[in-house]
Amino acid sequence: MHLNAQNRFIHRTRPFKSPDTPANVRGENGGNLQRPGNRRLALLMCTALFALTGCFNERSFPFVESKIIRLDASNGESPRPNPRQWLEAAHKQFGHLVPSSGYRPLLTNDLTTADGCAIDVFGYFNKQPEYLHTAIGNLSGLMHTAQVTGDTEAIEVPAPEWDGFEDVWIEVDPGVSISGRLGLAMRDGHPIKADCIVVMPGLLGDNMRTRARDICMGLRRQGFHALALEFRGHGQAEAKYPMNAYTFSVVETPDLLVVSEWLQDKEYVKRTGLIGFSWSASTALLAAWEDGRDPNDPMVSRRVADCQSQFDRNRRHYEAGVIAISPTLEFERIMDELDTPHAFIENPVLASIQATVARRVARKKHGEPTGSLRKLIAYEFSNSCLSYEDGVEDGLNYLRLAPYKDLPYEPKLEWARMPVIIIHGANDPLAYAQEIARFIADTPNPNVACVMFHGGGHDGFAAYCRDYLYSLLVNFFDESRGPKAVDYHTSQRRQPAAPLLSDQGNSKSHAPDQLVTR
Question: Are 212 and 160 in contact, with CB atoms under 8 Å apart?
């Protein structure tokens, strides 16, 4: 997602307003915001100010090695903790690296109550979701989001070179390759035997992103190999194979497992790990499901399976673990919101996404300019192996990670057999935090853990709590310091495990003092 101040896709339409917006709302700093005049003026002033000062521009957040906390290595004498246990212990070691906000971060078990319900995340963090998209209601969240994203692309011209990295091509289907940047950890001029961490771009992104470069270069300095990927239809893969459509992770998810096998076949790679942001964070979760799911899973139609790349289901993939940063679990809700044009001054997040979508539509010559993600998906699918009557429906069923209306759904992460950690922010202006609580309530698999911060916006954690984020990544993927997956698998398909609460809560909502604590 791109949220730079220069990226303004402004439409002449009525501003977005939540139907249940109160007459007065308390701003991020505690003041009451009167509507509409004062609030509109405040929005204009805030947006203009921060556009001028550059606080909404993409920035670099490199690793600061001296500030990364390393956990003690396991001596092999005691059982390794599962991901939920590991996150609890790790947070005690470097939780002080999170900026003080008056609200302690919530870990996995904090997000559900004893009876299995999702807690009221917004109530705990004192957030009003209907104002998270506004500068006056969520200035820090929008700023942190913008600082780790950008709107430049590297298609006709590759991204500038990264020191210590080389461009590689990985064949994922006969005659189809995807591009990447591979950096090997070296000793005495030779690659060491180490894990390789795969880093994915955000929605419609590529290796021009500073975020991917910072993380890959930092991991390499910490003794990991690192590979920054560009999917089909992205970056140099788009330049070399312009006729290959992007299917928004339907085809690209199995590609990731092919990439894992390609890496593991290298003599210098031990295990593989995976990091995704926003849309690709959901792709990372789908990869965790794809690795362990039943080959006859009813959420995967035969026609979808037939057009996906083939990998070895007898092998394990991404055993070092999966990190999903700000996943867009309820992406179909976002699609609904993007069907209506949004002005940047009223909703910079959705307006910026619409600008990105519109550029893609124009470059691919799909038709009339539009900011509708739904239409873009239909356009891309029509140029892919999903161009059959029910292709969009089958594709969305494959992608669905959260219930949507009365459409088919299953808790996909019940099948994860590697460590998985979700990192999210309560002030995320796009993927609402309550979605994560519902997801955790519906996923008792101990291999899936979560940390929820008061801030960070939408995947802006390198800007919000850089040293915590990088300490978590380095220790999580470390073979002697990270968690160990448990042998967990459902014996049959499950329905949602517990009542799921709405974003606004209902009669079963839980107050902050009813959080599960230890």
Answer: no
| Three-state secondary-structure class, residue 453 | strand
Distances (CA, A) of 215 to 2, 179, 205, 210, 325: 18, 18, 15, 9, 13
Q: What number of other Cβ atoms are within 10 A of residue 77's Cβ?
A: 5
CA 263 to mean position of chain CA atoms = 23
Q: pLDDT digits over 431-482, tens only?
A: 999 999 999 999 999 999 999 999 999 999 999 999 999 999 999 999 999 9
What single DSSP character describes residue 229?
Answer: E
Q: What token pair was written down for 490? A: 């459902």
Token pair recorded at residue 99:
């900026």
Whole-number Å distance between alpha carbons of 256 and 253: 5
Bin 278: left if φ > 0, else alpha if -120 < ψ < 50, else beta: left
The crossing angle, in degrees rounded to 10, of helices 37-53 and 135-147 is 20
Per-residue three-class SS string for 160-227 = CCCCCEEEEEEEEECCEEEEEEEECCEECCEECCEEEEEECCCCCCCCCCHHHHHHHHHHHHCCCEEE
Tens-digit pLDDT profile for residues 205-243: 887 888 999 999 999 999 999 999 999 988 898 889 899
Helices 373-382 and 331-338, axial angle in degrees (round to 10):
110
